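Lab meeting, item 3. Inverse folding demo.
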């Protein structure tokens, strides 16, 4: 936990690795994940580095693996993922992997080429089969029509067959030519119009749809096609028709004129289709076996290739010594883990068989080290909130440690409802319990990933909301009398309790209770449920939540000021910041101590003795008069005003003057720049004392808005069916309850929860962290095999 409070102590080290042991040593450091290497060749382009050829070979291997992965996914074959993390292969194993991938790629390409050729042949035979069937129907219809015309002289020339004998008015038979083919169904209307316009209506088109979709041999998509036959006369029209068919990418097939020839061709086509089906089946079986074998190992292969690539990419950041036998590297690493790094280097040297040990030397540098905070799955979500504002400066106090409690608590102050918090808690609890299963699913949805990453934060937010909901006695806008109310409706004259009959006899709609006789004692925990049925409920809860908001804000900011002690030098704290900040905080605590006590015990104190927080704050500085407040209040207020007055020039002037005196006999010092900077800082802090305190009133505002919105939703939606005494009211209640539940989850939990989350985020980033946190560092990015996505290539 110490490294979580303050970042790890880092040191800059220099590595001396023998060339034959460098690969194994870097591999061990990658498995360890505690070293951040510096690029010693920042000006060298990628193709001029020493191991650029090895990196290119890794890119080529990964390209082949992606090709195999694409084919595996195309066939819907599951890829085995055992979760194993194999060690990085030795360099000589790289040759075996290249040979394996080359063999698989060539085999798959050959299978794909053969399969595509077979499918194209199968498509042609299938289209020819449909052409023979459809054209046979066309010719049979023409023959029947011709016979009818011969027996019925009343038929016109237009109703005679196109390929049969001429009508009785002509003595010589007329022979028409024709072409048949297949075209995409959506191109038929445009195809028909083009034929009509180009051939000027001198052709006759018949078309019929193919009922079953056909598979495209290239893309594998299902396409709808139609069979057509075009009748024409003369070679000129034939040439035009073929050019139009070519332009519309229609496929033409030979079609015999006589029925016997067509029947004989159809038999041959069916035989060839059956043979092709057999060959296609065998080809697909072979392809499936190859892909299944590759699917068992492809995840392991990806990890191995990316580890090799990561190692050579890191080796490209090293320098060679003059003898070209030793690699020199510089790296940042945690001081506490130097022993583990030394052990990893020894293991790498032993694996490589080198007789010369690797050397790790600590270096002295003035460069700012990276920030490294050790994390786990619980603290990761809270640390991400802090890092989104800015990476903490090296060895600076890490606010994430305190955010674990303060963030869900301040959220719960605004979201205080036991029922809503319980729903949020159950959702987060499901994510926590099922986290291993969810991680195994590898869900890529960005929004869900954000919720899942902050599951422990949401869990605490729901838990704290349940706690504040009990304090507010608010469960879905309803109050519950758990510990028995401290109020009893008592007649101040007789001392007897009021009953329903007495109230009815006196026709009392509103009963005013006297605290002296009706108040029996404070409620055991939280707000007394009697306030839920009073007409001045909002007045009381407003007063309570407003005071609590300011008290929480002052405590939060005072804690931030206290944390600034560990981030600055003693002179900077004692002389410059402590006075004003401490006086300010003490002043605020003194002011609100009395108002807090009166808020919770106002039943035993006369209301005219309670003064406004705002008016007292103003009066404190402008009019030092004695009020009906604790003993010596005005004298103590005057003392605080005096300290605040002298703290402003103290904070403004002492630091520039002290620094000028310190550099009087030393190096050059720009007094004007320091003075202006300190002036701006003093103005900002003095104004922030007021504005930041007022900013915490958002706790009160959002808490009130959330409670009132929940109450309005219950009153406007659920109250009506609950008052119905008929059977229809029960069925109506079911439908209304569904609407109320959906509105509660969408509006009150998701939308209101997001609003409270953003306001809590602002309070931490601006009001709390501005007191001590600079966030100007840079993150520690160690060389690690845990995340290899940086070393993958795109398709």
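The presenter then showed the designed sequence:
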């Amino acid at each position: 936990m110490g490294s979580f409070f303050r970042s790890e102590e880092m040191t800059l080290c220099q590595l001396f690795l023998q060339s034959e042991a460098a690969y194994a040593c870097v591999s061990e450091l990658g498995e360890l994940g505690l070293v951040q290497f510096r690029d010693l060749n920042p000006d060298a382009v990628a193709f001029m580095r020493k191991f650029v050829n090895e990196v290119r070979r890794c890119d080529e291997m990964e390209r082949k693996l992606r090709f195999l992965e694409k084919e595996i996914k195309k066939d819907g074959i599951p890829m085995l993922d055992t979760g194993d993390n194999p060690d990085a292969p030795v360099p000589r194993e790289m040759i075996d992997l290249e040979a394996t991938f080359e063999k698989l790629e060539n085999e798959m390409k050959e299978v794909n080429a053969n399969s595509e050729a077979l499918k194209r042949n199968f498509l042609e035979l299938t289209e020819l089969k449909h052409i023979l069937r459809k054209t046979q129907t066309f010719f049979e219809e023409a023959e029947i029509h011709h016979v009818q015309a011969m027996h019925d002289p009343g038929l016109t020339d237009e109703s005679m067959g196109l390929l049969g004998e001429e009508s009785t008015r002509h003595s010589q038979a007329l022979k028409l030519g024709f072409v048949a083919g297949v075209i995409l169904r959506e191109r038929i209307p445009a195809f028909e119009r083009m034929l009509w316009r180009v051939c000027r209506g001198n052709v006759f088109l018949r078309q019929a749809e193919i009922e079953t979709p056909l598979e495209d041999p290239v893309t594998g998509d299902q396409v709808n096609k139609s069979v057509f036959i075009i009748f024409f006369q003369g070679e000129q029209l034939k040439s035009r028709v073929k050019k139009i068919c070519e332009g519309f990418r229609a496929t033409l097939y030979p079609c015999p004129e006589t029925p016997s020839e067509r029947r004989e061709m159809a038999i041959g086509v069916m035989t060839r289709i059956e043979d092709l089906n057999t060959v296609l089946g065998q080809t697909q079986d072979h392809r499936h076996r190859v892909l299944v074998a590759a699917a068992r190992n492809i995840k392991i292969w990806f990890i191995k290739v990316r580890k090799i690539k990561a190692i050579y990419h890191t080796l490209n950041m090293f320098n060679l010594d003059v003898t070209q036998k030793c690699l020199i590297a510089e790296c940042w690493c945690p001081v506490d883990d130097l022993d583990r790094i030394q052990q990893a280097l020894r293991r790498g040297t032993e694996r490589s068989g080198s007789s010369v040990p690797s050397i790790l030397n600590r270096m002295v540098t003035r460069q700012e080290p990276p920030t490294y905070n050790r994390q786990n799955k619980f603290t990761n979500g809270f640390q991400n909130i802090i890092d989104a504002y800015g990476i903490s400066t090296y060895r600076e106090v890490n606010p994430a440690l305190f955010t674990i409690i303060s963030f869900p608590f301040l959220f719960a102050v605004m979201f205080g409802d036991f029922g809503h918090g319980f729903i949020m808690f159950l959702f987060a609890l499901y994510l926590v319990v099922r986290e291993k299963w969810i991680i195994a699913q590898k869900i890529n949805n960005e929004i869900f990933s954000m919720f899942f990453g902050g599951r422990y934060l949401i869990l605490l937010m729901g838990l704290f909301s349940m706690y504040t909901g009990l304090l507010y006695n608010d469960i879905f806008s309803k109050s519950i009398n758990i510990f028995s109310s401290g109020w009893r409706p008592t007649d101040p004259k007789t001392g007897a309790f009021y009953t329903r009959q007495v109230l009815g006899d006196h026709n009392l709609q509103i009963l005013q209770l006297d605290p002296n006789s009706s108040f029996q004692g404070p409620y055991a925990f939280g707000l007394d449920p009697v306030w839920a049925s009073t007409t001045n409920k909002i007045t009381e809860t407003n007063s309570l939540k407003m005071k609590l908001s300011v008290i929480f804000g002052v405590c939060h900011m005072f804690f931030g000021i206290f944390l600034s002690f560990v981030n600055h030098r003693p002179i900077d704290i004692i002389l410059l910041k402590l006075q004003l900040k401490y006086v300010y905080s003490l002043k605020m605590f003194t002011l609100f101590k009395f108002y807090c006590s009166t808020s919770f015990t106002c039943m035993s104190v006369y209301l005219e003795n309670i003064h406004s927080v705002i008016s007292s704050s103003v009066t404190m500085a402008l009019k030092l008069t004695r009020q009906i407040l604790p003993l010596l209040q005005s004298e103590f207020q005057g003392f605080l005003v005096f300290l605040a007055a002298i703290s402003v020039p103290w904070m403004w002037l002492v630091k520039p003057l002290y620094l000028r005196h310190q550099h009087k006999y030393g190096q050059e010092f720009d007094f004007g720049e320091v003075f202006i900077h300190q002036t701006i800082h003093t103005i900002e802090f003095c104004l922030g004392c007021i504005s930041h305190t007022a900013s915490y009133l958002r706790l009160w505002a959002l808490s009130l808005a959330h409670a009132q919105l929940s109450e309005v939703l219950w009153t406007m939606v659920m109250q009506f069916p609950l008052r119905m005494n008929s059977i229809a009211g029960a069925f109506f209640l079911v439908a209304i309850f569904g609407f109320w539940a959906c509105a509660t989850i969408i509006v009150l939990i998701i939308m209101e929860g997001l609003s409270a989350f953003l306001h809590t985020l602002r309070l931490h980033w601006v009001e709390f962290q501005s007191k001590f946190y600079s966030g100007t560092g840079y993150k520690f990015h160690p060389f690690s095999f845990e995340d290899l996505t940086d070393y993958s290539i795109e398709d």
